Amino acid sequence: MIQRSSRLDNVFYEIRGPIFEKAQELERQGYKITKLNIGNPAPFGFDTPDEIIHDMILNLRNAQGYTDSKGLFAARKAVMHYMQSKSVRDVQIDDIIIGNGVSELILMSMQALLNNGDEILIPSPDYPLWTASVTLSGGKPVHYLCDEQSDWYPDLEDMERKITSRTKGIVIINPNNPTGTVYPSDVLQKIVQIAERHKLIIFSDEIYDKILYDDTAHFSTAALSDDVLFLTYSGLSKNYRAAGFRAGWVVISGKKSIAKSYIEGLNALASMRLCSNAPSQFVIQTALGGYQSINDLVLPKGRLRRQRDVCYDKLTSIPGITCVKPKGAFYMFPKIDVKKFNILDDQQFILDLLIDQRMLLVQGSGFNWSKPDHFRVVYLPTVEELNETMDKLALFLETYKGS
Ligand code: PLP
Q1: pLDDT at 15 > cutoff 80
Q2: Which residues line ligand 1 (CB under 6 A)?
Q3: How far apart are CA 93 and CA 79, in angstroms?
Q4: What is the reported pLDDT for 13?
Q5: What is the pLDDT of residue 219?
Q6: Ligand 1 pocket check: which of 177, 221, 277 to mutate, most ligand atoms within 8 Å of Cβ?
Q7: In the chain, which residues fall in CATH 3.90.1150.10?
Q8: How much distance in Å is there from the Cα of 359 to the middle of ligand 1?
Q9: Where in the chain is the domain with CATH 3.40.640.10?
Q10: Residue 232 and residue 247: Cα distance in Å, rounded?
């Protein structure tokens, strides 16, 4: 028997885990599954802006060769300007690495940093790739709680209490996946102070920074101090609905002077994978400049905003379900009354729902949430589909009594 590497022990990514596979099997049998499980905008009719597609086609002939390992100058310059517009100081072209999506850069950031047993503070709930990347890199993910009673903001006491001599950094996901919360500047400021006190790196995942509702402002954490090393992540997958193009970037800023060796490590990993997908690098400049079509989608009459409102209203009208209204991204993380429905295992609940109603959600434990009392909804389907799906969920819960 050929065994997989033990490095994969305890590495999980439930968003595409066993229940997802079960849904695929049902699809192969001819069933239609309503998918509220993956944050992939294009299949739901959220097209990549035309100018991006056009630019990629125009540049395809120029994109045949490898680029600089860190990425095309024009793409990095556009990212640099974007960071300057968010008040992040002292970002140079060389502080930016373009990757095959943020996913690749998250893993590279952990692999370049961690020795066995080094700890990284990660939110609970989290986007699970962070936890998986720390584990795969030999590190120990340590989860700090986010508090549902306080709009899912991080519990700062819990965060600070969990710092040890092995802690290397703090991950912030803002706007958050799976809760949809957006952190105000005073919350970010306090996290930055913790990082300053304990000399920790801040990894700020800001991939949803343009998907904001109700006039909510987004603050880039890296703008808040010169005394902390920041790695800030974003890309084309969500703000520009171009997840398949695999284009993302990481920006290194702040106290770079203390991180020469780490930055060399990151550059070495970037070189080893030669470069990221060249055609998509060519469109980064076009994407970041000028008219931003995402802004229309989040206006009161915009499609994303209407879907958020319908999904939230429908969900919270179901007896036994409560939810913090999201301010950003396209996810909700509702709470379900586990006593009322006798839910002991959230994976079983999601599986029962899939089999009974042909609807696919992801269980809260898939986001490193320790209790079986949450699940994640992706509200990318149309208002009509969301209405129909939430009605089915309500009907299912009328009689559901665990299993
Ligand atoms: N970070 C967060 C918080 C995400 O939700 C996702 C994708 O869902 C990613 C990173 C990965 O994005 P990419 O498509 O750039 O790899």
Answers
A1: no
A2: 39, 101-103, 127, 173, 177, 205, 207, 235, 237, 243, 248
A3: 9
A4: 84
A5: 98
A6: 177
A7: 6-47+296-399
A8: 23
A9: 50-288
A10: 14
- Pick from 38, 46, 106, 129 the residue to mutate for probing ligand 1's pocket: most ligand atoms within 8 Å of its CB: 129
Question: For residue 207, how far is its CA from the centre of ligand 1 (angstroms)?
Answer: 7
- Residue 57 corresponds to which tokens in the numbers above? 């086609």
For the segment 359-372, the average pLDDT, to the nearest whole number, is 96
Q: Does domain 50-288 have CATH number 3.40.640.10?
A: yes
d(CA 333, CA 63): 40
Q: What is the residue whose two structure tokens read 């009354």?
A: 337
**Dihedrals phi, psi of 12, to nearest 5 degrees:** -125, 145
Q: For position 141, what pLDDT does the model report?
A: 98
Looking at the CA of residue 104, tell me the nearest atom of ligand 1: 16
> Which percentage of the chain shows pLDDT scores above 70?
100
> Looking at the domain 6-47+296-399, which fold is it?
Aspartate Aminotransferase, domain 1 (3.90.1150)
pLDDT at 403: 67
Q: What is the mean pLDDT of the chain?
A: 96
Asked if 317 and 296 count as a contact pair (C-beta separation under 8 A), the reply is: no
Residue 235 clears pLDDT 90, i.e. is over it: yes
